[in-house]
Every structure is written in structure tokens, then in C-alpha cells.
């Protein structure tokens, strides 16, 4: 993991604080505040009967179910042990000569490209634009003639959705002439009230590649489950030919098949998340200047004082937040807070009041 820093380090926090995991309020990892769906434990217990056997070599049953759920041909979908391994495999397969990452950005895009021996450039969205990836910025990026563009929609860590005009510019340009690979990480799209997924367009946009995560929306990051979708059959064939066997374990596959039946859970998540996001924004407003977000997290700067004393104060009370110093394309000084359940938000706000008293 070359130089990458991540949130969600609850085991380390629990050890250092001598607390059980359930006493840690983790605002550093962007997980569904609804928690895990009912019935999951029973599914996993039932699947235990099968762990005496190898799982499917290529997660064939899960892949077929994912393709059906996305209304895509089976050939368009590749299941993976979380979206991050797929990012690394994609970098190895594409090996672009000029890759541009739209930033601020998840650190693993650049790390994966670097490990594959590819130079990385960043297209930095501006704070004065609330970090929106505006059409003018996209046109400037396209003028540099990349052969691969990577972005997240909504963006992480800002939570901003890519404007439709910007996305259409990129999709159209990717298909002109030799075009370029357009990689869109939609790990947090399921949390958004306004759905702007490119997945339904993949049949007609073969240069576009969509990455999806199942572990964030269903609050199971420990299971590691995601998938890649593309209308380019040669690319997905290459994924399967170069994939490690048994990369998705039996329990994760059983969970994934169950998740795809939970339409009501998916339907209630965006509005629940939006309500809690507004509650969080209102509560931290006296202390944090936050930017607009459509996702299950917010990003901002402290209005006064240094970050480290606050981070330490919260940590001592079993509350983790995400320090974004070192995030690609972002200056130092920013924090990210995940949307958490009401009791944890109250706990955070009480700790903030205590710190600033």
C-alpha cells in the first residue's frame, strides 16, 4: 500500500484506548448509517455449511446476479474482493501512458497507477468552485490528450456529484477516434438522492468503465465486495483471464447474493442519509466550514484553531474523524466526517462543545 492513508482504523483505536469495538464512534469511514441489513447474520451462518469447500473460482453465481441487477450482459461484469483490488488490476491491464486523476481523490488511484509503472497527473478542482468538476476544467483536461481519466462520482472526499454537462463531455470525448479510457468510481452513488450513474450507458459507451462497491452501502467493509462493469468485452475478458482464483470467499459471495434482493434497504438509504447529513452539518456549523455534499460524508475546514489538538481530544473519547492531509489534490487543513447514526452524531457534538468551551 504505497504511502496510502485510510480511515476506519477502529481495531487500532480500540487497542490503544482499551475499549471494545462497539464503543468506538467511527466518523472516519464512510459506511451506511443504517448499519447492516436485517437477515445478514442468518445468511452468513447458513453459508458456514459451505466453507468446507472451495468457493466458486470466479464467483460465477454472484457475477450473474450482479449483471442481472445492473441490466447488463454477463460479459460486462467482473466481481472483485472490493473495488480497490479491481483498481489495481485495472492499472496493470491498461498501463496508460498518460493517466489523469480528477482530484481531490481517493489515494489508491494514484498508488495503483504508480505501482503499475504509470506516470500520474492530477486535474485539481478548485476550492472557490466548491471543488466541483466544472465543464471548463474538463475541457482543459481533454486538451492534454490523456489516454485514461479516473474520477469518482460522487467525489471522495468532497461528496460532490459531477455535473451532467461535465460527464457528457467526458463520455463523448472518450468515444471519438481512439478515445481514452474513462474510469468512474461510483462507490458512493447509492447514497445520493439524485442518481447519476453511468452504468445504464455502458452498452453504448465502450470506453467507459464503472467501479461499484457493495461493502459501503451495506455496511460490511470487512467482507470486501465490489465489481467492475464495462461494455468492452475484451477488457472484461482480460480481467477474468488475469484474475486470481477464489478471490471472493464463500461468505462474501453469499452476502452479495443476499444484498441484491434488498430493494427496500437501498431505497430508504438516500433519504435517511440526507436527513442525518443535514443534522450533522447543522451541528458542526459553529466549528467547521463545510462544502456541499450529496454523499454520506462531508468535508470542511476548522474555523479556528489547529486540527491535531481536536483530533486527539476526540480520539481520547473514542471518536475517530478523517484527517485529509496528504490527500491527492488537496491542500492541508481539511477534515472529513462520515454521516453516522443519531446517537453517534450527538456524541460527536457533545465532544466538540467540550473542546471549544
Task: Characterise the protein shown here.
Among the domains are: 10-30 and 263-356, Aspartate Aminotransferase, domain 1 (Alpha-Beta Complex); 84-179, Aspartate Aminotransferase, domain 2, CATH 3.40.640. The chain is built from twelve helices and 13 strands. The chain has helices spanning 10-17, 40-47, 60-70, 83-94, 107-115, 135-143, 164-174, 233-242, 250-259, 263-284, 307-316, 342-356; strands at residues 25-26, 77-80, 99-103, 120-124, 148-152, 181-185, 208-213, 226-230, 288-290, 297-302, 319-320, 322-323, 334-338. Helix 5 (107-115) links the parallel strand 3 (99-103) and strand 4. Helix 2 runs antiparallel to helix 9 (250-259), helix 6 runs parallel beside helix 7 and helix 10 runs parallel beside helix 12 (342-356). 43% of the residues are buried. The model has no long low-confidence stretch (mean pLDDT 95).
Termini Cα gap: 40 Å
Question: What sequence of helices (H) and strands (E) makes up the elements?
Answer: HEHHEHEHEHEHEEEHHHEEHEEEH
Strand order, biggest sheet?
Answer: 2-8-7-6-5-3-4
Q: How much strand content do the residues show?
A: 15-25%
Secondary-structure-based class equals alpha/beta
Helical content stands at 25-40%
Gyration radius (Cα, Å) is 20 Å
The major sheet is characterized as: 7 strands, mixed
Provide the CATH top-level class of the domain at 10-30 and 263-356: Alpha Beta
Overall pLDDT confidence:
95
Q: Give start-end ranges of low-pLDDT stretches.
A: none
CATH homolog superfamily of the domain at 10-30 and 263-356: Aspartate Aminotransferase, domain 1
Amino acid at each position: 500500500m504505497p504511502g496510502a492513508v485510510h480511515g476506519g482504523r477502529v481495531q487500532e483505536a480500540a487497542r490503544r484506548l482499551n475499549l471494545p469495538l462497539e464503543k468506538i464512534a467511527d466518523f472516519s469511514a464512510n459506511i451506511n448509517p443504517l448499519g447492516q441489513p436485517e437477515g445478514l447474520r442468518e445468511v452468513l451462518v447458513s453459508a458456514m455449511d459451505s466453507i468446507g469447500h472451495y468457493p466458486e473460482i470466479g464467483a460465477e453465481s454472484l457475477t450473474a446476479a450482479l449483471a442481472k441487477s445492473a441490466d447488463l450482459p454477463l460479459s460486462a461484469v467482473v466481481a472483485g474482493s472490493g473495488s480497490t483490488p479491481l483498481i489495481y488490476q485495472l492499472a496493470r491491464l491498461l498501463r496508460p501512458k498518460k493517466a489523469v486523476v480528477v482530484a481531490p481523490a481517493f489515494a489508491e488511484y494514484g498508488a495503483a497507477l504508480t505501482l503499475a509503472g504509470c506516470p500520474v497527473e492530477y486535474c485539481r478542482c478548485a476550492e472557490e468552485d466548491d471543488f466541483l468538476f466544472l465543464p471548463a476544467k474538463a475541457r482543459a483536461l481533454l486538451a492534454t490528450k490523456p489516454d485514461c481519466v479516473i474520477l469518482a462520482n460522487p467525489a471522495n472526499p468532497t461528496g460532490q456529484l459531477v455535473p451532467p454537462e461535465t460527464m457528457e463531455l467526458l463520455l463523448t470525448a472518450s468515444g471519438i477516434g481512439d478515445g481514452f479510457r474513462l474510469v468512474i468510481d461510483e462507490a458512493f452513488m447509492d447514497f445520493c438522492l439524485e442518481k447519476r450513474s453511468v452504468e445504464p450507458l455502458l452498452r453504448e459507451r465502450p470506453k467507459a468503465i464503472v467501479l461499484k462497491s457493495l461493502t459501503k452501502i451495506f455496511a460490511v467493509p470487512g467482507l470486501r465486495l465490489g465489481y467492475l462493469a464495462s461494455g468492452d468485452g475484451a477488457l472484461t475478458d482480460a480481467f477474468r483471464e488475469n484474475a486470481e482464483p477464489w478471490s471472493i470467499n464463500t461468505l462474501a459471495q453469499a452476502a452479495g447474493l443476499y444484498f441484491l434482493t434488498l430493494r427496500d434497504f437501498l431505497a430508504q438509504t438516500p433519504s435517511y442519509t440526507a436527513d442525518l447529513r443535514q443534522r450533522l452539518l447543522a451541528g458542526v456549523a459553529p466549528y467547521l466550514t463545510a462544502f456541499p455534499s450529496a454523499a454520506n460524508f462531508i468535508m470542511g475546514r476548522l474555523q479556528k484553531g489547529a486540527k491535531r489538538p481536536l483530533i486527539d481530544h476526540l480520539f481520547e473519547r473514542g471518536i475517530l474523524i478523517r484527517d485529509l492531509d496528504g490527500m491527492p489534490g488537496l491542500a492541508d487543513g481539511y477534515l472529513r466526517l462520515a454521516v453516522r447514526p443519531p446517537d453517534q452524531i450527538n456524541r460527536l457534538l457533545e465532544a466538540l462543545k467540550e473542546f471549544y468551551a
